Amino acid sequence: MTERTTWTELRKGLGVERAHPAYEAARIAFELGAEVRSLREQRGWSQTELAERAGMTQSAMARFEAGGTVPTLPVLERVAAALDMRLSVELTPA
Question: Is the separation of the CB atoms in 53 and 85 below 8 Å?
């Protein structure tokens, strides 16, 4: 496995202290993708296997895991179900 960088580390490297709304959306996509990749790897599944279970293509799953797309709630529901998990959306104080 390769060593992973967190979103905070990426931002520090870019010198971005206050996130523009587009950066915030990118952060969410990046963190969701990283979490899905981690869960997939814990199960020993390939991207293709998870994609098939979620009704997606392998290339769509690769983009998702890389944070290249902002997924819709139905897509997140399908991915969660494929991982035998329940999607939980939470609002917390800033």
Answer: no
Helix (H) or strand (E) holding 76, with range, is helix 73-82
Secondary structure (DSSP) of 19-72: --HHHHHHHHHHHHHHHHHHHHHHHT--HHHHHHHHT--HHHHHHHHTT-S---
Q: Residue 56: what pLDDT?
A: 97
22 is written with which tokens?
């587009």
pLDDT of residue 25: 86
Residue spans of the domains in the chain: they are 22-94
What are the Cα distances from residue 15, in Å, to 7, 19, 56? 12, 11, 36
CATH of domain 22-94: 1.10.260.40
| pLDDT on residue 11 | 65
pLDDT at position 79 is: 97
